[in-house]
Amino acid sequence: MSLSLSGEKPAVPDDADDGVWLECIECGETFAPFDDVRYTCDECDGLLEVRYADLPTFEDFEGEGVWRYTAALPLEEGVTTQEGATPLYEVPRLEESVGIEALRIKHEGMNPTGSFKDRGMTVGVAVARELGVDRLACASTGNTSAALAAYGSRGGMETLVLLPAGKVAAGKIAQASLHGARILEVDGNFDTCLDIVQDLASRGEAYLLNSLNPFRLEGQKTIGLEILEGFLADYDAVPDRIVLPVGNAGNTSALYKAFRELVQAGELAADEVPKLVGVQAEGAAPMVEAIENGADEIRRWDEVETRATAIRIGNPVNAPKALPGIRETGGTAISVTDEEITEAQRDLAGEGIGVEPASAASVAGLRKLRAEGVVGDDERVACLTTGHLLKDPDAAAAAGNDPEPVAAETEGVLEHLQS
Ligand code: F0G
């Protein structure tokens, strides 16, 4: 199986360009990486992965941020705004209340546009430039559109974003707007937007930069590499488990790929690989359903709803890559309610870490799995928080304290504080 943790190195095909090629995860067909625009396999429509003749080792990594990991990436440099190198926060109170040996928060909200999408875009937009395309497009629940708009404008390219009308948080629309994207509001959910953008891309109208694009996931692998390096530095061991929110399952696929490549390079034993745990909102949980049912394919949910609008997704397109990642690492998937998400958002805020609702799903999921005894008290765990609090100011204000009107003089303020 091409997506197993066997440690078997891939055979280098004639299509390889400087040791890099694209390979179909379903039928194994290979393609040159930068000759043509292609998102899926010409033969069977399966998902593609970037493959490398030379696999990265920890010793190869130097510098800071996403481009520290050039040895694990398809290009030497990107269209960059200094993404990556995000904090791996200690959270002592949360660690104690969850009741595990160690808990760290990898806060991807600290990227330039406030989400992990920047890591994918610095690579994806550079590949677009390499391919010579001039118009970039994505469907988005918000963060991808913000990152695409920023990186597209930095790369001097036109950007087009399709968003589900009324379901994108204010901060994200503001970003896409000011960075100059054309914003097309679709009367439908994210999955419909993605169907349309895929059609546009296949007609050659724009270059697709959703996580279906295999190059974007290469940039997102660096989240996993940073977590491993951080844990090795602080604990001399990799984490037992990484818990992350799941929408399209791009990150789950990317982290698993990062670890598979380290196993193939002999840098990590297969049984050392952190267990991957995907968390979805109860109202949008097709991955959880597939894991619980032992299914190889997910069932598309047409009706989805959650306060965590970033992961309001019913058809996770990367499921064929992510399901093996969860299973092969001995991980699992779990759903949480909107109330549990908001509670976790408050818990993180109480440690000074401001995240948007989808991000807090990771902590809510960990708490639930610990309560169920799936996570042991001796475990060291990293939770991924994917987006910044300011992305969704309305959700933050609703979850937090209300402003209190007071008189415009000190005595009145003191009186109010005593009442
Ligand atoms: N968390 C946040 C804050 C997100 O914006 C997303 C995805 C996810 C988690 C899920 O990540 O797709 O890799 O499983 N947002 C996409 C967007 C869909 O359009 O911004 P995934």
UniProtKB/TrEMBL annotation:
Region (Disordered) location: 394-419
Cofactor list: pyridoxal 5'-phosphate
UniProt entry keywords in alphabetical sequence: Amino-acid biosynthesis, Lyase, Pyridoxal phosphate, Threonine biosynthesis
Annotated Tryptophan synthase beta chain-like PALP domain residues: 79-387
EC number: 4.2.3.1
Domain of life: Archaea
N6-(pyridoxal phosphate)lysine: modified positions: K117
Listed Low complexity bias regions: 395-408
Molecular functions per Gene Ontology: L-serine ammonia-lyase activity; pyridoxal phosphate binding; threonine deaminase activity; threonine synthase activity
Residue positions binding pyridoxal 5'-phosphate: N143, G247, N248, A249, G250, N251, T386
Keyword Amino-acid biosynthesis attached: yes
UniProt keyword Zinc present: no
Biological function: Catalyzes the gamma-elimination of phosphate from L-phosphohomoserine and the beta-addition of water to produce L-threonine.
Family: Belongs to the threonine synthase family.
Protein name (Swiss-Prot/TrEMBL): Threonine synthase
